[in-house]
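ugh ok fine here u go
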Amino acid sequence: MGGFIDLYTEADTFLHRMDPRVKIVAVLLLSLLAFILSHLYLLLALLTFIFLLLFLARATISRTAFALKFVLRFMVLIIILWPIFDPTGTPVLASLGPIKITEPAVWRGVTSAARVGCLATVWYILMFTTSQRDLVRALVKMGVRFDFGLTLAISLRFLPTFGALIDSIKDAQRARGLELSKGGLLKRSKNYVAVLVPTIVSALRTADTLSLALQSRAYGARADRTYLRDLNMRPSDYVALAVLAAILVLPAFAKFVMQVDI
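structure:
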């Protein structure tokens, strides 16, 4: 399985030692907070806090760059396209036929990009600091069926794999003289068939190998599963959970009860 990239980074940080159930709840709470906040400076503060946690996770530069490059591209795309499709507001900064670029639309695009950045990058905290084994065990302890937990963990684990695989196939096809970035839209779409077909074949082969690996380990043979390592909440986990709950509850109370514009 060449080109495998696992986002989990082995380290001894407080995020790695934290109970994975707390990290799952933390990711959900911070995601809800991104929806509650509406001002750009607050969303940027939240995004800075998330990046600080990613830095404290001690992930390698290569893994961090691989994970964040997709998010940053999507954020830039939102900033560019939002003012084009949202011409409301004044003053008008630029006008080209029916297309009007207004200052409020630009700021709304930046705000939406910051919100999307928060929603996307916060999940990397969980993936950088939680192994597949701990993630599945945490989901099961939270009431999710083991089958569903394993499916989710495998999905999160293999998404970076197929991203790296697609890059490898592109490089291989370029080495054979295939131009993927030249020509019209129709020609480029046809050229990408040479990338799509090997990717699908590799995905099917990976799924078959994975199913054989599960069968060889007698997966599903017994209903009463046993675990070598169980999860136990520590006092520091309860403190972290309380702090995270306060981070969400206080802004929610201020916005929905006190009617404070945040």
